[in-house]
Amino acid sequence: MKTISKSKLKSKLLEFLRLVESEGEEIVVTDRGKPVVKISKYGDSPPTKELFGQMRGKVKYFEDLTAPTIEEWSEL
């Protein structure tokens, strides 16, 4: 992970963006030595099925969300 000041980034932004795009390098931008922004390659989000697949069949749906349920919460 590279670190660069805002002033240096301003003059060479396109060069650094190409580096991030081609090599996947992450860049931390600093202001007076303190990190303020991280630039990284955009990644696609995993599909919904992959994210929530293990929950299939475990979620209960109730018609009226304001009606009390008859089930009690069990202690863990």
TrEMBL record:
Give the matching InterPro entries.
Antitoxin_Phd/YefM, YefM-like_sf
The record's Pfam families line, in alphabetical order, gives: PhdYeFM_antitox
**Family, as annotated:** Belongs to the phD/YefM antitoxin family.
> What is the annotated role of this protein in its UniProt record?
Antitoxin component of a type II toxin-antitoxin (TA) system.
Could you tell me what this protein is called?
Antitoxin
Identify the species of origin. Answer: Halotia branconii CENA392
Which lineage? Bacteria, Bacillati, Cyanobacteriota, Cyanophyceae, Nostocales
